[in-house]
TrEMBL record:
<feature type="transmembrane region" description="Helical">
    <location>
        <begin position="401"/>
        <end position="423"/>
    </location>
</feature>
<feature type="compositionally biased region" description="Basic and acidic residues">
    <location>
        <begin position="208"/>
        <end position="252"/>
    </location>
</feature>
<feature type="transmembrane region" description="Helical">
    <location>
        <begin position="309"/>
        <end position="330"/>
    </location>
</feature>
<protein>
    <submittedName>
        <fullName>ABC transporter permease</fullName>
    </submittedName>
</protein>
<keyword id="KW-0812">Transmembrane</keyword>
<keyword id="KW-1133">Transmembrane helix</keyword>
<feature type="transmembrane region" description="Helical">
    <location>
        <begin position="16"/>
        <end position="35"/>
    </location>
</feature>
<dbReference type="Pfam" id="PF02687">
    <property type="entry name" value="FtsX"/>
</dbReference>
<feature type="transmembrane region" description="Helical">
    <location>
        <begin position="359"/>
        <end position="381"/>
    </location>
</feature>
<dbReference type="Pfam" id="PF12704">
    <property type="entry name" value="MacB_PCD"/>
</dbReference>
<feature type="domain" description="ABC3 transporter permease C-terminal">
    <location>
        <begin position="310"/>
        <end position="428"/>
    </location>
</feature>
<dbReference type="InterPro" id="IPR025857">
    <property type="entry name" value="MacB_PCD"/>
</dbReference>
<keyword id="KW-1003">Cell membrane</keyword>
<keyword id="KW-0472">Membrane</keyword>
<feature type="domain" description="MacB-like periplasmic core">
    <location>
        <begin position="19"/>
        <end position="194"/>
    </location>
</feature>
<feature type="region of interest" description="Disordered">
    <location>
        <begin position="208"/>
        <end position="255"/>
    </location>
</feature>
<dbReference type="InterPro" id="IPR003838">
    <property type="entry name" value="ABC3_permease_C"/>
</dbReference>
Length: 436
């Protein structure tokens, strides 16, 4: 007799129980695989985006916010710090590399970061086409930005004030694309890189006319004893450009500010001394990205563990459902099984039939569960990309997938072992004579 064909027919004998077993088991597998994949991808993405950054220095406030804003670029900065004060820290012999960054503008949600040529080194980013920025108002695009908007070398666009995709006014000065970076699969891909001078110059020119207009209006309201001051403002309006240019360069000097400073240490001793010195003796704040992200893992880990335990609970329920389905099949078809025994089938063949049915349910549920997890994770990552401009790769670890499959196999085997117990105690003569 063909045990395999009989198992397939039994598989369809009670469709409701079969459906419930597949449904609950596939949901538990989808939750287990999906949460493991999201947690793994989330951790890898954060670790990769750290690059070689050991410390972030910025304005006083939340250290986690400082790291999220300056390293991952998914939060608002805590404020600005004087560039001159940051320069003093950059000359510390225990610091290997210190890169200033300044931002406050965006292009359709993608942040424009003013920095130096050392910033791409943190992420091992290289120019794919074009060149690096050399003059103010020149930008180099991350791979994701260039692909999304289709910019070519020489194209221009206008940045918007603020970090939100909508609501900010556009700056008058256009930015020129001079280069595009190779894909790094890190935060660099979704940034627009320019020089510090660009950020300063855009905001300086924007604030300049407003201040001059305010001064001119004040001049018309002043009394006669302010005539000297009025003449000075009339000189500015009539084209004394030398003084304006001097003031512009002065603003880029001691009065300029940056958002934060990204630091890489020369040795582990610096990690112990420098952050404490900065936090205790300056108006700036030092945050350690690895430490802060580990705290973030602890916060998110509670939710991950909760969902994981829920998935385990559903897995247990699904295995109980499979056990009930198989057990009822044995009880309801006891006469047929006894008849098979009378025609020469042994207990092993009947047990094998039960095993086939159990693993058909488990195999179908596993395939559906993995597909559901991939669909769910894909839509979640698309939502993250749309909201945070953060591209995350779908990483399916086969090791963890096999571990989940092994756990499902063990639970199904346990359900089968309990369900086949009536077969081992079957009294053929009583069943065939319809005796109880």
């Amino acid at each position: 007799m063909n045990i395999w064909k009989i198992s397939i027919r039994n598989f369809r004998f009670k469709p409701l129980y079969t459906f419930l077993g597949i449904l609950t088991l596939s949901v538990s597998i989808a939750l287990l695989v999906g949460i493991q994949q999201m947690d793994k991808s989330f951790r890898n993405q954060l670790d990769n985006n750290l690059g070689e950054i050991d410390m972030v220095v910025g304005a006083k406030g939340s250290p986690l916010q400082l790291v999220l804003a300056s390293v991952l670029h998914i939060d608002n900065p805590t404020g600005n710090i004087p560039f001159e004060e940051a320069k003093g820290l950059m000359n510390n012999p225990m610091i290997d590399k210190a890169v200033p960054i300044s931002y406050g503008d965006n292009y359709k949600g993608y942040r424009i970061v003013g920095t130096t040529h050392d910033f791409p080194v943190f992420y091992n980013a290289v120019i794919k086409e074009g060149r690096s920025m050399e003059n103010p108002m020149e930008v180099v695009l991350g791979a994701t930005v260039a692909e999304k908007f289709g910019f070519q070398i020489g194209d221009t666009f206008q940045s918007s004030h603020g970090l939100a995709e909508t609501g900010g006014h556009e700056h008058a000065a256009p930015l020129t694309v001079v280069g595009v970076y190779e894909p790094t699969h890190k935060v660099m891909d979704r940034l627009i890189i320019t020089g510090l001078e660009t950020i300063w110059e855009v905001h300086h020119h924007e604030e300049g006319p407003i201040d001059n207009e305010h001064e001119v209006n004040d001049d018309h309201e002043e009394d006669d004893h302010h005539e000297a001051k009025e003449e000075h403002h009339h000189d500015e309006e009539n084209g004394v450009h030398e003084n304006n240019e001097k003031e512009h360069h002065d603003d880029q000097g001691p009065g300029q500010e940056i958002t934060s400073l990204l630091v890489s240490f020369r040795n582990p001793m610096a990690l112990l001394n420098i952050p404490r010195t900065i936090n205790e003796n300056t108006n700036m704040q030092a945050a350690l990205p690895k430490f802060e992200l580990e705290r973030l893992y602890q916060f998110t880990g509670v939710g991950v563990k909760t969902i994981t335990w829920i998935a385990y609970a559903i897995l247990v329920i699904s295995c109980i459902t499979i056990f009930i389905s198989l057990y009822r099949m044995v009880r309801d078809r006891a006469f047929d099984l006894a008849l098979m025994r009378s025609y020469g089938a042994n207990r092993f063949q009947l047990v094998k039939m039960m095993v086939y049915e159990g693993f058909m349910i488990a195999g179908t549920a596993f395939i559906i569960g993995v597909l559901l997890s991939q669909i769910g994770v894909y839509f979640i990552f698309e939502m993250i990309t749309d909201q945070y401009k953060q591209t995350m790769s779908l990483q399916l670890e086969y090791k963890e997938l096999f571990q989940t499959a092994g756990l499902v196999v063990l639970m199904v085997l346990l359900s089968i072992a309990l369900a086949i117990y009536p077969i081992t105690k079957m009294n053929i003569s009583k069943i065939l004579s319809h005796e109880k």
